[in-house]
From TrEMBL:
Highest taxon in the source lineage: Bacteria
Location(s) in or outside the cell: Cell membrane
TM annotation in the entry: 15-37, 49-69, 75-93, 153-170, 196-224, 236-257, 269-296
Pfam families per UniProt: ABC-3 (PF00950)
Membrane topology field: Multi-pass membrane protein
InterPro entries: ABC_BtuC-like, ABC_TroCD
Alphabetical UniProt keywords: Cell membrane, Membrane, Transmembrane, Transmembrane helix, Transport
Name used for this protein in its record: Metal ABC transporter permease
Family, similarity comment: Belongs to the ABC-3 integral membrane protein family.
Gene3D superfamilies: ABC transporter involved in vitamin B12 uptake, BtuC
Length: 311
């Protein structure tokens, strides 16, 4: 197991394993960096609803492909269906918050549960219809790299690189909008366009992550590295870089662990690694960590006692 893990970590476990590790690392890098802006803008729940709203689109895209004579397993078309379904969910979410008295979190819960339930029902129907090749569709729930093809890994890696490039171009308006939308508008930033760009980047991360970590866990890959990085810095640029690095390491190590332990799913392994990094940061981060705060309280108490003794 140790030798297999070391080989996977050093990209020496074969071409396919190296490709999957690279794709997972680039996905983690992109998701972590985008998540830094998503959490700062307080859109974590929106990204969760977006992820769950992809499931009906996957089922509908599969049915359309099989109706056209295919086997329904084309990942790009499945992702297009997932994306359209997620956009529909976002539109309905916006309409609910604009035209009713529902708060955003309540409307998000309604969209999340409704779309997810519809998707599960649709996938169950597909399994019973015995058409096409539905085996593996359930992998979009928790992720599945075992059946990933070379073209799938290249799509994920290329998509992650494009997301990073767009994020680098848009980082200034995104940061200004996240920190202070009113001031950003005074400075000439189109905050509505910036928010839309952030939603689209988040959606892109969600779609790419469906194959690796699944729709249930992709939100953890978007949020946990960002929360971890926030414990180490207050500067958005540093937080984005740190979050991306944590996500990249988690993606690579999680894929390597999945290769060394074939029964270990890649998605949960990646999420557990990011959570481990979060727990370690909660304890060890300077200034905000539990240990640092405890030491600060001890120093303060000593200072107060010394001041009282002098008095």
């Amino acid at each position: 197991m140790t030798d297999a893990l070391l080989q996977a970590l050093l990209f020496q476990a074969g071409y396919n394993a190296a490709l999957v590790s690279l794709g997972a690392a680039l996905l983690g890098l992109a998701a972590g960096a985008v998540g830094a802006f998503t959490t700062l803008r307080r859109r974590a729940l929106t990204s969760d609803a977006m992820a769950h709203a992809t499931l009906p689109g996957i089922g509908i895209a599969f049915l359309l492909m099989t109706a056209a004579g295919g086997d329904g397993r084309s990942l790009p078309i499945l992702l297009v269906g997932a994306g359209l379904s997620a956009v529909l969910g976002l539109v309905l979410l916006q309409r609910l918050t604009d035209t009713t008295r529902l708060t955003e979190d309540t409307a998000t819960g309604a969209i999340l549960s409704s779309f997810y339930g519809a998707g599960v029902v649709l996938l169950t129907v597909i399994q019973n219809l015995s058409i096409g090749r539905p085996a593996g569709l359930e992998g979009f729930l928790l992720g599945s790299t075992a059946g990933m093809l070379r073209a799938d890994a290249l799509l994920i890696a290329g998509g992650g690189a494009v997301i990073l490039g767009l994020l680098a171009l848009l980082r200034r308006p995104l940061a200004m909008t996240a920190f202070d939308p009113a001031h950003a508008r005074l400075m000439g930033v189109n905050t509505r366009a910036a928010d839309m760009a952030l939603l689209l980047l988040t959606l892109a991360c969600v779609l790419l992550g469906l194959r690796v970590v699944g729709l249930i866990l992709i939100v953890a890959l978007l949020i946990t590295p960002a929360l971890t990085a926030r414990l180490w810095s207050n500067r958005i640029g540093v937080v984005a870089l740190l979050a991306g690095a944590i996500g990249a390491v988690a993606g690579h190590v999680g894929a390597a662990l999945s290769f060394a332990l074939p029964d270990l799913p890649t998605g949960p392994a990646i999420v557990l690694i990011t959570f481990t990094a979060f727990l370690a940061s909660v304890l060890l981060a300077p200034g905000r960590g539990v240990i640092a705060r405890a030491l600060a309280r001890v120093r303060l108490a000593r200072g107060l006692r010394k001041g009282g003794a002098r008095a």
